[in-house]
Amino acid sequence: MMPNIKSSVKDVKKSAENRLYNKAIKSEVKTTLKRAISAIEAQSADAADYVKLAASKLDKAAAKGIIHKNKAARQKSRLAKKMAQAGE
Hints:
This protein is an all-alpha fold. Helix content is 82%, strand content 0%.
């Protein structure tokens, strides 16, 4: 059901655009995290690069308010922990 008020119609359109944008960013973050984790588990030589990229994407998503800053911090911490355990 579409609203009758012009500004509300615009709000609905903008919300739909933002939802798609946020969904794309979240998907990208998840993919990058999965790549980093699989690189760590495979003890790949470029695992550190994947972890660095994942941390960057998490920070950017948190800065834009797409994910919560504490969630980004928690995921980065877990990645770093996995990286450290793989190095042992």
